[in-house]
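F.,

This is the one I mentioned.
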């Protein structure tokens, strides 16, 4: 039965804290624990979690705000489950942070923690159209932090980073063995043939993985695909077995790694170069994909974050995050998140690298009243001898009103399906134009035509903004620090290699780590460990008189 935890609002007159030496009490008040209690624990909204419990039957739930707080602290400090449970039982700072004033006052079983996570995960899977419960807490706490520190959210930056789930980096041969062996273990023994039973013997693994020469790899993969086809055929008459997760993964592996030869009625293993990037990468996690970024290949997921970056901010706060399969591009993620970010807070400028450019990003940004500043641009550089599209007068990125010489087209159409503009000009005027050699219009028999994709206009505008050296330097300065934020999440909080599998669990865990990161920024704010630029701005505004921000 769900019940909100309000017990911390009225403490006992005599408790562990009241018996402490006054100097120890003062020392405790100077730590992160009281800040966490006041600005995180007391601000947690437990009501959205009522859907995880019965409303009128059963034993009251373990306090949700304590469970959530322990998860936030765990991921803030990169503890293991054993660590956080031990800290909860014996560390008074942790007890104080979660509203308890007597050491050992409340017992938390390991199973209770796991059951809470299971309920949150199940709710997220069953409600894919809704924001997950952790993201809801992130939004509320972030709004609280922004107000608390007086953060300016108008200027923000975004960046993505590769993250891994709890899988091993397996080669193609090792992946084939893992998928096949898991499927064979799942299948009832009485259905297995002798050749399939042999897969589970230690000698088979040794032969396949450790005693095969490089030249034999393709042969071994074909052998395991054949065994997989045999297992799938055996389970065909039994839907209950066929729908087991290990069998489903085996079927996907066969479809990814082999092609069906209709003439010979057989499956033949594909060459390495023919394997798609979104093919199965792990026998234990179907969500991870392969992506080559630069010269390095990555297997896993991708995390994209948005963070404030105004110079006057004492600290910077992460305002949004999303986790996707790593084959999803930066521009696609940002295009989806811009409208969501603008709903929550006012944003006027975004600072990103060139990998985030797309026509859709520019369209979403302009619809939201946001200017995107790029530190660089990918793709082919425009010919400096040609007239840029920005020299034309184009209304709403849909209608060409005039050429660079001021001549209007006699007709202009915009195709909403292909997002292409066709503007027709008078051929006689264009023939006598002194700039016709540099103009992008094409001469036809009866007229001249400017055919331009809408995305090309957005690209030309973005390149023009980037050409301002001063603006580019400022954009680079504002964007660069987000690399440090990603590094902090991955190195000090374990976001680089998560201890869970699957996109849903990875998103939930990452959200908790980001809440922990934002809280650490608030601790910095209260301790006066603010950014150098913010200090300089305050000092200048006060004519050299140092005024503490906090």
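My design for it:
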């Amino acid at each position: 039965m769900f019940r909100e935890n309000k017990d911390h609002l009225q403490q006992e007159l005599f408790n562990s804290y009241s018996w402490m030496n006054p100097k120890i009490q003062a020392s405790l008040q100077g730590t992160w624990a009281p800040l966490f209690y006041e600005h995180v624990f007391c601000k947690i909204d437990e009501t959205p979690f009522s859907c995880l419990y019965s409303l009128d039957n059963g034993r009251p739930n373990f306090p949700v705000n304590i469970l959530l707080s322990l998860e936030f602290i765990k991921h803030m400090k990169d503890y293991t489950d054993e660590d956080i449970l031990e800290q909860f039982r014996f560390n008074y700072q942790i007890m104080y942070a979660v509203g308890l004033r007597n050491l050992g006052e409340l017992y938390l079983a390991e199973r209770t923690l796991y059951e809470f996570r299971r309920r949150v995960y199940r709710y997220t899977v069953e409600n894919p159209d809704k924001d997950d419960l952790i993201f809801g807490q992130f939004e509320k706490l972030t709004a609280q932090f922004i107000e608390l520190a007086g953060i300016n959210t108008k200027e923000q930056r975004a960046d993505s980073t590769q993250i891994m789930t709890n899988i091993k980096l397996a080669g193609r041969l090792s992946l084939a063995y893992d998928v096949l062996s898991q499927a064979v273990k799942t299948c009832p023994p009485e259905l297995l043939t002798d050749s399939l039973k042999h897969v589970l013997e230690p000698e088979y693994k040794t032969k396949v993985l450790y005693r095969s020469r490089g030249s034999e790899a393709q042969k071994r993969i074909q052998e395991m695909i054949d065994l997989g086809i045999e297992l799938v055929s055996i389970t065909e008459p039994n839907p209950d077995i066929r729908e087991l997760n290990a069998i489903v993964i085996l079927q996907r592996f066969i479809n990814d790694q082999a092609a069906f030869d209709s003439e010979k009625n057989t499956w033949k293993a594909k060459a390495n170069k023919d394997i798609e990037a979104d093919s199965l990468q792990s026998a234990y996690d179907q969500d991870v994909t392969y992506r080559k970024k630069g010269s390095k290949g990555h297997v896993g997921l991708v995390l994209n974050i948005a963070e404030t970056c105004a110079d006057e901010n004492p600290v910077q706060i992460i305002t949004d995050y999303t986790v996707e399969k790593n084959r999803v591009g930066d521009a696609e993620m940002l295009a989806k998140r811009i409208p969501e970010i603008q709903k929550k807070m006012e944003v006027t400028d975004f600072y990103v690298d060139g990998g985030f450019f797309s026509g859709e990003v520019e369209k979403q940004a302009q619809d939201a009243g946001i200017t995107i500043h790029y530190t660089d641009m990918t793709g082919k550089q425009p010919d400096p001898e040609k007239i840029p599209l920005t020299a034309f007068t184009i209304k709403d990125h849909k209608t060409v009103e005039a050429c660079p010489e001021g001549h209007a087209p006699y007709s202009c159409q915009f195709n909403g399906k292909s997002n292409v503009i066709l503007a027709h000009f008078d051929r006689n005027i264009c023939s006598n134009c002194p700039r016709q050699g540099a103009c992008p219009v094409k001469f036809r028999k009866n007229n001249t035509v400017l055919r331009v994709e809408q995305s090309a206009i957005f690209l030309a505008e973005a390149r023009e903004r980037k050409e301002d050296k001063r603006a580019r330097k400022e954009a680079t300065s504002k964007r660069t620090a987000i690399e440090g934020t990603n590094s902090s999440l991955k190195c000090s909080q374990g976001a680089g290699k998560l201890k869970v599998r699957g996109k849903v669990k990875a998103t939930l865990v990452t959200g908790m780590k980001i809440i922990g990161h934002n809280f650490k920024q608030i601790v910095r704010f209260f301790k006066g460990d603010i950014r150098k630029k913010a200090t300089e701005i305050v000092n200048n505004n006060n004519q050299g008189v140092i005024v503490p921000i906090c």
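Residues 544-550 have pLDDT under 50 and may be disordered.

Talk soon.
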